[in-house]
Amino acid sequence: MLFPHSCCRLRLAGHGGAALLVVPFAIGVMGVGAAPLQAAERTCQGTLLQIKVHQTGTTRSERFRFSLGLEAEASTKAQAMALLNERLEQARQQVKPLALGRVTIPAPRSYAYGGGQAGPRREKASTSISGEVNRANYDAVIQLAGRLPGVRLRGMTSLASGEGQATLQSQLLKQALEEGTRQAETMASALGLRRVELLRIDQRGAGYRPMALASINRAQSFNPGEAPRPSQSIGLDLDYCLQ
Q1: Are 59 and 229 in contact (CB under 8 A)?
Q2: How many CA atoms does the CB half-sphere of 48 hold within 13 Å?
Q3: Do residues 145 and 152 lie in contact, with contact meaning Cβ atoms separated by under 8 Å?
Q4: What value does the mean pLDDT take over residues 90-108?
Q5: Burial of 218 (0-12, 13-18, 19+ CB in 10 A)
Q6: Which parts of the chain fold into alpha helices (H)?
Q7: d(Cα 208, Cα 223) in Å, to the nearest integer?
Q8: Closest by alpha carbon to 236, among 205, 209, 197?
Q9: Given 45, 47, 149, 151, which is the most exposed site by the fewest CB atoms within 10 A?
Q10: pLDDT higher at 162 or 55
Q11: Measured at the alpha carbon of residue 118, what is the angle toward residues 115 and 119, in degrees to the nearest 5?
Q12: What is the tens place of the pLDDT at every residue in 226-242?
């Protein structure tokens, strides 16, 4: 399901000088800039209308990127590392059958705390396991965080499929062009003009944004359909000739 938002900025230039007209709409989230898309240069013998249009929408999550944090502490560094290795091996054995492809485990870190008046000196060691799961294993990974000792869910990120991203981008592009044309026709009507011609299309912004979920540590079932959807946005600079 697509939830579009649009923002338009109109610039009107006629024979008697330039005038600026701003039409407010709900502003969507812009993504990473894309290469300009332009038609051949044309001249306008009437009134030049410049419009900026932004469209934002969401698409279905197809998979999820997860990150599990692992911790262990003991009175010595060697003991903390040994305990962390035990927990890591247990977590690895249960996570790998659920993950899509390989999982990533960085080198462990350790630090000491306490000592003196703060209490006995302790050593803490930590690492993490990250990877991706499909929708069917979304809840299973979350439940691991609540079941395994020393393991917590640091985050889950909704990801769209490549096909879903492409479909959404096409929909947003179509809607942006329709919105620009509608605004141009409205302006032409207000000026008593009848002809609207699109002169230039400049695609300034188009980006995909995965959606991060807050850390979860509750013992209940979680539905992937309830996770925040990945979003995408597109921006166009459009020039119209009104006659």
Answers
A1: yes
A2: 17
A3: yes
A4: 94
A5: exposed
A6: 77-95, 138-147, 162-190
A7: 23
A8: 205
A9: 45
A10: 55
A11: 65
A12: 777 788 888 999 999 99
- The pLDDT of residue 189 is 94
Residue 162 above 70 pLDDT?
Answer: yes
81-98 in b/e form (b: 16+ CB < 10 A) is bebbeebbebbeebbeeb
Q: Extract the tokens encoding 45.
A: 């013998």
Residue entry with tokens 């332009």: 38
Cβ atoms < 10 Å from Cβ of 234: 27
Minimum mean pLDDT range among 17-31, 77-91, 189-203, 206-220: 17-31
Task: State the Cα–Cα distance between residues 201 and 235, nearest whole angstrom.
Answer: 10
Kindly state the tokens that stand for 199. Answer: 């002169």
- Indicate the burial class of 16 (C-beta count within 10 angstroms; 0-12, 13-18, 19 or more): exposed
Bridge partner residues of 122 (DSSP): 113
- Beta-ladder partners of 55: 6, 234
pTM score: 0.60
CA dihedral in degrees (146, 151, 154, 159; nearest 10)?
A: -70
> How many other CB atoms are found less than 10 A from the CB of residue 172?
25
Choice between 224 and 12, residue whose per-residue pLDDT is larger: 224
Cα separation, 186 vs 181, in Å, equals 9
Structural domains of the chain, with CATH: 5-60+161-242 (no CATH), 63-157 (3.30.70.2970)
